[in-house]
């Protein structure tokens, strides 16, 4: 077998060979795979550039099992997700779900959504050790949350001018998840940073499908709560908390006005932005700590939202 130095000299003459590492055909020990190494899988060779990281709340969370790579045969950038397992409980109000990471579930969804522009694209290979390796196309776009937060306007202008179109795109994203649910699959990690807005065309794409969950109250419940978090964020153009909203508003808040998922985030947005229609605010309150009624399906949520859309 060729060494990494030999492969890179032949296929990547621009790469500084002093940084050439090793060739990995078995990715089980992913912590030891880093810059300059070559992963050989699916009859292709991938030069590892770095570990991926999720950026949330101003911090980076490294994902050592996710490698940003360059395919040496094509020159295209790819993300390789290697086999990694974890599990943990998640509590939402009075409910608790068992969450776990499932590479096989992500592979099923990648097969299911192949060619569907609403989702990230990729394919799965088994390495020499029989481990699942997902080779993903890089979405050419920007995270939805940073795009919305960076819009250079106040909330009233945003809500009047941009939010109707944003809601239309959100409804399309909901329909994408409905597509999965109707086929017995869950996204598993529905968050605002797991939607990318494409630079060309402005389409929204869901990414990252490797989380799964067991939620006895509703098999798709965590996906629905995630959609609620995103909806509140899009409506508010951010995440209002008692620390950054006017004191006179805070004085009139109660625990029931806050999110059932994140207890410090305001959901009853009419208390902050009274021009939000009552009907839309009523939808938001389904995701509040004070709610006694929750959505059972994406269809229920989108039906209520389409009625609200007509009011904007």
Fold topology:
Blueprint: H1 4-11, E1 23-24, E2 38-41, E3 44-56, E4 59-71, E5 77-81, E6 87-92, E7 95-101, H2 103-112, E8 122-126, E9 132-137, E10 141-143, H3 144-149, H4 155-161, H5 163-182, E11 195-198, E12 204-206, E13 211-214, H6 221-236, H7 247-250, H8 278-285, H9 298-309
Parallel strand pairs: 1-2
Antiparallel strand pairs: 2-3, 3-4, 4-5, 5-9, 6-7, 7-13, 8-9, 10-11, 11-12
Helix pairs in contact: 5-6, 5-9
Write a brief caption for the model.
With 312 residues, the protein is of the alpha+beta class. 29% of the residues lie in helices and 24% in strands. The chain has helices spanning 4-11, 103-112, 144-149, 155-161, 163-182, 221-236, 247-250, 278-285, 298-309, and strands at residues 23-24, 38-41, 44-56, 59-71, 77-81, 87-92, 95-101, 122-126, 132-137, 141-143, 195-198, 204-206, 211-214.
Please, could you describe this protein's structure?
It is a single chain. By secondary structure, this protein is of the alpha+beta class. The chain is built from nine helices and 13 strands. The chain has helices spanning about 5-10, 105-110, 145-150, 155-160, 165-180, 220-235, 245-250, 280-285, 300-310, and strands spanning about 25, 40, 45-55, 60-70, 75-80, 85-90, 95-100, 120-125, 130-135, 140-145, 195-200, 205, 210-215. α5 packs antiparallel against α6 (about 220-235).
């Amino acid at each position: 077998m060729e060494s990494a130095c030999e492969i890179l000299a032949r296929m990547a003459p621009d790469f500084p060979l002093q940084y050439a590492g090793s060739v990995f055909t078995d990715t089980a020990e992913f912590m030891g795979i880093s810059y300059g190494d070559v992963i050989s899988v699916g009859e292709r060779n991938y030069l590892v550039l770095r570990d991926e990281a999720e950026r949330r709340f101003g911090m980076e969370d490294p994902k050592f099992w996710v490698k940003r790579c360059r395919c040496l045969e094509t020159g295209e950038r790819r993300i390789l997700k290697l086999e990694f397992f974890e599990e943990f409980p998640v509590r939402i109000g009075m409910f608790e779900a068992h969450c776990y990471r499932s590479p096989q579930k992500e592979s099923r969804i990648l097969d299911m959504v192949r060619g569907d522009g609403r989702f990230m694209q990729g394919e799965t290979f088994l390495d020499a050790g029989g481990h699942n390796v997902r080779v993903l196309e890089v979405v050419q776009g920007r995270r939805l949350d940073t795009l919305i937060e960076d819009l250079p306007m106040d909330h009233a202008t945003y809500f009047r001018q941009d939010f109707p179109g944003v809601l239309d795109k959100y409804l399309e994203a909901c329909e994408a998840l409905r597509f999965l649910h109707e086929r017995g699959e869950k996204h598993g990690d529905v968050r605002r940073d797991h939607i990318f807005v494409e630079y060309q065309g402005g389409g929204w794409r869901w990414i990252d499908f490797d989380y799964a969950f067991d939620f006895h109250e509703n098999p798709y419940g965590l996906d629905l709560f995630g959609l609620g978090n995103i909806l509140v964020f899009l409506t508010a153009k951010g995440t209002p908390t008692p620390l950054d909203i006017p004191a006179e508003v805070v004085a009139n808040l109660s625990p029931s006005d806050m999110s059932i998922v994140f207890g410090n985030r305001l959901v009853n947005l009419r208390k902050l932005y009274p021009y939000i229609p009552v009907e839309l605010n009523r939808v938001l309150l389904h995701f509040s700590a004070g709610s006694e009624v929750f959505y059972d399906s994406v269809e229920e949520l989108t039906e209520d939202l389409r009625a609200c859309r007509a009011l904007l």
